[in-house]
Amino acid sequence: MYGAREAHEARNSNRLLAIRLETNKSCNLRCRYCYAQSGEDSAKIAGFNVLKRIVSEAKELGIRSVVVIGGGEPTLHPNFRDLIAYIDSLGIIPMIFSNTVLMTEELAGFLYEHNASVMGKLDSLKPEIQDYLAGRKGAFEDIKKGLENLLNAGFSKPVAPGELRLGVSFVSNKMNLEEIEEIWHFCRQKNIFPNMEILTPTGRANDELEDKLLTAGEIKEYKLKLLEIDRKYYGYDWLPYTPITASGCLQHLYSLYINIEGNVRPCAPTKLDEHPALRIEGEYPYNVNKMTLREIYGSDLFTYVRNIDKVLEGRCGNCEHMEECIGCRGYAYSVGVNNGVGPLEALRMECQQCFK
């Protein structure tokens, strides 16, 4: 993530700060909330030369980081290490989302040496809940071991106060709600960034976790409690209304998401490429194999996307915190299109999670 000042300066100067890159859909877990519906049965893998070309085109637009998000588990890609080394060689920070199941001591050391940051996974401290959410028995123990290897490699030692290189994602839902405070303390005490996300009604979650979505009241209660904990014990203060707890999400202003087929989105759950209204002669045109990244970035659609803060509706449209929070556009989009709203209208709807 980048802060509000950096995000707005980048947007205003037409500079891209980051791309999020799917490398493969194969995964050794089958998470019940997966937006990409990845699993062991998927064989989709992006070619290494294609990935290098995308990173190279993004560098020309000014990026400072590449988020290797897999779409599945990126460490399964046959050229994973080559990709990380290439990104690092360009002076760009590799940022890897991994379930850490394959995170050996040696791999953790390789990533540390190549200036990478890592976002792991920890949906629960209870093996039975973590295994259920991950869709595989034994996942908890594998994840735990991988995180230990990252900690031992030095990822828990900040370069400077607040400059963390290790985080863990946990998707808040009714199954882990009672242990969120415990997970939060675990992260803070080990210098791990707690990337708490809210279960979003997209992908596999629509079928498997529909009854586990949190209410607005539950979200409000736990966010205010975590803010109290941070102020009391760890010296952090943050805006509680932002979609990611303790961190705003302004991706739409400075980032692009490229999925395994080469289709470009604003972020993972903002699946513009799947909406029929944005297809031309049956195909989504904003694809890195049909257009350059610069052409896509400069198109009318993506110009609209990165200026979305200027057309927000409802409470978001007149919020005094708009400089640092535009709500979760992905959640608003998912809810909107699920209810038959057009894609551009859905994108500017008020945040469905805000309790302000």
TrEMBL record:
Gene3D superfamilies: Aldolase class I. Keywords: Iron, Iron-sulfur, Metal-binding, S-adenosyl-L-methionine. It comes from Methanosarcina baikalica. InterPro entries: 4Fe4S-binding_SPASM_dom, Aldolase_TIM, Radical_SAM_PqqE_MftC-like, rSAM, rSAM_sf. The keyword Metal-binding applies. Coiled coil: none annotated. It comes from the Archaea. This is Radical SAM protein. The keyword S-adenosyl-L-methionine applies. Pfam families: Radical_SAM, SPASM. Residues 11-237 form the Radical SAM core domain.
